[in-house]
Amino acid sequence: MYGRSIHTLETAPTDRVAIVFGAAVYQNSRLSPVLRDRMDTAVSLYHDGKVDVEVHTRDVWTLTGGLGFSRAGGENDVTLSLRDENFLGTGKELGVKHVSGVDRTTSEVVFREDTLFGTRVKTELSLSFNSDGGRYLLNLWKPFYALDARRTARLTILDEERIDPQFERGERLSELGHKIQFYEAYWGLSTGLREGAAHRWTFGFTYDRDQFFAVSGTADTTPIPPERSFSRPWIDYEWIQDRFVEIKDLEKIARTEDINLGTRVRGRLGWASTAFGATDDLAVVSFSASRGFRPGKRMLLFNDMALGARTGSEALDSLGASTQLRFYWRNWGKHLFFAELQGDLVDNLDPERQLTIGGDSGLRGYPLRFEEGNRRVLFSVEQRFFTGWEIFKLANVGAAVFFDAGRAWFNNRTGGPEDLGVLKDIGLGLRLSPSRSSGKSILHFDVAFPLDGDDTIDSVQWLVTTKKSL
């Protein structure tokens, strides 16, 4: 179904202002889950101090659901769901979902609203009943909804109980019971968009507590970590440039995306203290930065990095760092060559966590969580094809051929399984993107062939996954 709206803007008699206003309307339509990209536009001439902008949009189906199946790394997930992103035409989202996965079975109810009581306050409420515990989440927040927005605030309440499994060579080795309490409140302000950039300051307090317990009914002898708490006040600063461009067929199929080629830098400093209920006195810091480039007329390059650490007066408690390079080249008509290099390192990783690589994390020819370590690197290249086909006007069709190479390893470990070195695979896949529903996920059908490893690895890996991007 197509819709049309007329927007009147009081402005000076310049065409440029009218065009900018129109672009803002288009961007808002893309942010709405119930609308698709504009179909046509018409901008009237300046008259009586006003400019009329006519925007044509297409709404989509918001009721989705059914039986879903996914497979990655030799393991299957089955999902039964029903979701409406425009429940009874109110703009609210209501959904129920049952997932039978590798780690747990989950039944979940979710409610979301983007305009609480007609304001810009967003609401999210979810309740999960899991085979290994449960999860309750409440989010109330007013985001920086635009680069020129001046205020933000948020309240988050999360209580969760679950079992964290540990893997080696794709096999489950141990289990650790884990209780999580995470409560956070913050308030922030910005000077708005000035000279092409926005400066944002945010002040908050986080209560972050982890408790661990042995899993009953198992013979696991894994040591139980002590209780851990990092309750802290903190201050956060963000600087973001406004260099957004519109690009089609990049990470979506037949959809226009708003991509920022500017610099974005963000840092946070907190102090966990026993005075606030923390188990130790520690500085908790994080930093992230990203930047986009145009190395050629038909090329894009993005660099992202992140760093997080906890450190006391005597020693480093924990450290994690990651970096990612993404390269896009429109090399053949509308088709696209894509390359990605990412690396991670951790030191003193929390005991319930693992840094792994396998069929569920980009190394598509290998089993789930096949290798683990405190260092990880992954390189992938793809040739993406945008066919222009639409199956029964329900799904847009794409395809890809790919190559992956990566490994995870310990830089200081003695013993353990043999280091297999860099693992490689090749494969090809089909991509289906819903064209009539509000869902933003893309269905991936892949077949991958491992080129390394041992005799325990199947010679062919079949993958069926849903992702937010190509």
Description:
The structure is a single chain. The chain has about 475 residues and is mostly beta strands. The protein has a domain at about 1-60. Helices cover about 5% and strands about 65% of the residues. The protein has one helix and 28 strands. It has one helix at about 15-30, and strands spanning about 1-10, 35-45, 50-60, 65-70, 75-85, 95-100, 105-115, 120-130, 135-140, 150-170, 170-195, 195-215, 230, 230-240, 245-250, 255-260, 265-270, 280-295, 300-310, 315-330, 335-345, 355, 370-375, 375-390, 395-410, 425-435, 440-450, 460-465. It has a 21-stranded antiparallel beta sheet that branches. It has a three-stranded antiparallel beta sheet with strand order 1-3-2, covered by helices on one side. Strands 15-16 form a two-stranded antiparallel ribbon. The radius of gyration is 24 Å and the shape is globular. Residues about 1-30 have low confidence and may be disordered.
Low-confidence stretches: 1-29
User: Radius of gyration, rounded?
Assistant: 24 Å
Pattern of helices and strands: EHEEEEEEEEEEEEEEEEEEEEEEEEEEE
Count every helix, treating DSSP H or I runs of 4 or more residues as helices.
Answer: 1
SSE class: mainly beta
Q: Taking all residues together, what is the mean pLDDT?
A: 85
Beta-strand proportion: over 45%
Helix content range of the residues, please? Answer: under 10%
Distance between the termini: 26 Å
Shape category: globular
Strand segment count: 28
Sheet with most strands? 21 strands, antiparallel
